[in-house]
Amino acid sequence: MSHTAWKVLPFVALVTLASACGDDAKPVNAAEYGELLFRDARFSESQFNDFSCATCHATTPTPLNGRMDSGYTLYNVASRPHWWGGYETNLLDAVNFCYVSFMRGVQKLPEDSPQSRALYEYLVSISPDAQAPALPYTVVKDIQEVPRGSLERGQVVYQAACQECHGALHTGEGRLTEMASILPEVTHDYDELFPGIPHSLVVIEKVRHGQFFHIGGNMPAYSLESLSDADMGALLTYLGL
Ligand code: HEC
Ligand code: HEC
């Protein structure tokens, strides 16, 4: 089904939700309900998910506070002609890739549920420009060593890209989920797990592909656009690798 098919389905009922304080029920319109879903990890029913859409996507024209996400800002997303570097030509499919792979949604969001329609209305509400260009998405295929950068830059990159999920270096303090490993201590097992491969290369593989050599994990992958090789090199210096 096309992007248009998802769009034309009307959002019928006003959804009534309990307000944040829990006392009185507060009616919200479709886009508002969609934003609540967007910011709520419980949007995925999986008990193994701690991510919301907002964990990986800003919604402002430029991400605030220098945050460096794996995913693009979704400002104007509904106006883009295609997604995931042209790999997805249907907006709901582009969303479902994230929903299933990263949020462990067991089933794809259907086109016609109130939740899907509300999410769509929200994405449209943050897409004010009728035309927006598709954004490039370059996957680093072959994992190679990168020149190391400065410690100072590495710290900035860690805080902007990794810390929200992984917490503080060495302790994991403040991490989003217990499932996110403590960095760089987790690499201590790599000689056993990945014999003969330099630890830095295993970390580059993980960050670039979100998985180890195509197996396992729900960490998102970082394209070249979301993390340059120069910033990867600085990050490795900060991780002591
Ligand atoms: C764990 C991180 C993560 C989560 C959670 C996540 N995404 Fe994504 N998303 C990505 C990455 C990485 C990409 C690929 C880069 C890109 O295109 O933005 C992406 C791509 C997309 C795209 C395509 C953007 C484009 O122009 O190419 C859409 C749309 C999208 N996500 C919507 C969502 C929605 C809606 C949710 C919640 C249901 C969600 N994502 C949850 C990481 C995530
Ligand atoms: C959206 C949350 C999120 C972000 C952002 C994130 N990670 Fe992860 N990361 C995870 C989770 C969850 C795991 C454990 C599950 C898995 O392996 O995918 C993980 C696992 C890892 C591992 C593998 C640990 C092992 O099992 O050996 C490494 C290495 C890693 N992350 C490095 C990074 C680096 C470096 C960054 C920043 C560029 C980063 N991560 C950003 C969530 C995240």
UniProtKB/TrEMBL annotation:
MF GO annotations: electron transfer activity; heme binding; metal ion binding
UniProt domain Cytochrome c: residue ranges: 149-241
Listed Gene3D superfamilies: Cytochrome c-like domain
UniProt keywords, alphabetically: Heme, Iron, Metal-binding, Signal
Range of residues in the leader sequence: 1-20
Pfam families: Cytochrome_CBB3
Record bears the keyword Signal: yes
Keyword Iron set for record: yes
Protein name per Swiss-Prot or TrEMBL: Cytochrome C oxidase Cbb3
Organism, scientific name: Myxococcus llanfairpwllgwyngyllgogerychwyrndrobwllllantysiliogogogochensis
Native organism taxonomy: Bacteria, Pseudomonadati, Myxococcota, Myxococcia, Myxococcales
